[in-house]
Amino acid sequence: MKLVLFQNDGKGEINPGLLTDRGVVSIASAVKRDYTPQLTMQGIIDDFDKLRPTLEKMAKDSPSVPLEKVRLRAPLPRPGKFLCCIANYWEHAQREVRPLSMFLKNSDAVIGPGDTIELPDFTEPWAFMHEAELAIVIKGPVKRVKRENWREAVFGYTAMIDVTARGDGRRTWPAGNPASWMGKSFDTFGPVGPCITTADEIPEPNDLHVRFWNDGQLRHNYNTDDMEHRVPEIIEWASKIMTLNSGDLIACGTNHEGLGMVQDGETVEIEIQGVGKMALNVHDPLKRKWERGVYMGADSTNPEAVKRHRPTTAG
User: Of 260, 255, 243, which is closest to residue 294 (Cα–Cα)?
Assistant: First the structure.
C-alpha cells in the first residue's frame, strides 16, 4: 500500500490518500484527522493494523482522481526526528570499514514532489550536491530494538534527497569532524516522497535500485545491497540512543558514486524501486554556476554498478 498526502488541483486542504494504479484515492473519510498533516499521517501509522481492511477495500472500490489532477505533498511534512546515516555504502569495496554514525537533519528541511530546492543566498564559496537515499519510516514508540526484531519498528519506506552544502559550507567542529548538520539542514534540503510504501510491499530493503537524474542526466545508480550498515543494524543502533516514534525518518545514507552539483534552473528526479519517482526544481537567487556532471565515481551509470554486494569479509 502506498500512502500519500495530496491536494486536489494543487490547492486547498491537504488530504491523506492512497496511490493506486487507478490514481489517488482519498481516505479522509476513513481516518482520524488531526491538527496538521504530519499528525494525521502519524495517526494512520499508529492505527494502520486496524485500518488496513478498510483501506484495502477503498483502494479497490472508492473513486479515484488521476494523478495528474492532484498535487502530491511530502508524505511526512515535519517528522519529529529526521536522522541521517553518514556515508554508509561500500562503494564497490572502495571504503575501509567505518563505524555507523548519524546526524540530525532539520525537520523543516522537508519538502515534497514538485517543490523547489532553494539554495541559500550566502556569499561564502559553497557548492551544493545531491545525495539520493532510501529512508525508513518508523512505527513506534520503540526503544532498544534488537536487530533480529527490526521489523517491529518499521512501518514503511520513502525516498529522500539529502541536499548538501560542501566546501566552506561543511564546517568543522573544534574536534575536526565534519559538521554534517549545518551543511545539510537549510530549509528545503530534505525532499521526501512521493509516498510511503508500507513494509509488506518491500520485504528486503537491502535490495532496491536507487536512481537519480539531473536535467535528464543519470547520476546515482546503485542498489541498497551495497549498504555497509544494513537496515536491521540501523534500527538497533538508533533505538539504543533515543526512543523512535511513529513518523520519524531515518535516511540510510548514499553511495557517493555519481555525486554532482545542483544549481539554478535544474530539475532533479529520484526513483527508488518499490517506492516511486518524484521530481523537484532547483532555485538559486545568486545564480551561481558549477561545472555540470558527475564529480565522484563516473562509472556509477555502468549496469554492473547496480548490484554490488558487500565484501565477503564485512561484518
Answer: 260
pTM: 0.92
Contact 292, 229 (CB under 8 A): no
Identify whether the C-beta of residue 109 lies closer than 8 Å to the C-beta of residue 186.
yes
Joined grid coordinates for residue 212: 537519480
Q: What is the dihedral of CA 107, 198, 271, 30, to 10 degrees?
A: -80
CATH of domain 82-305: 3.90.850.10
pLDDT of residue 298: 45
Q: What is the pLDDT of residues 198-251, one digit of tens each?
A: 999 999 999 999 999 999 999 999 999 999 999 999 999 999 999 999 999 999
Give the Cα separation of 130 and 40 in Å (integer).
30
Q: Residues 188, 189, 195, 199: what is their CA dihedral angle, to the nearest 10 degrees?
A: -150
Domain boundaries, the chain: 2-73, 82-305
The whole-angstrom separation of Cα 184 and Cα 157 is: 21
Instruction: Map grid coordinates 523547489 to a residue.
Output: 116
What pairs with residue 166 in β-bridges? 127
C-alpha cell read off for 158: 520513502
Candidates 146, 262, 144; CA nearest to 213 is 262
> How far is residue 131 from each of residues 19, 117, 253, measured CA to CA in Å?
25, 13, 8
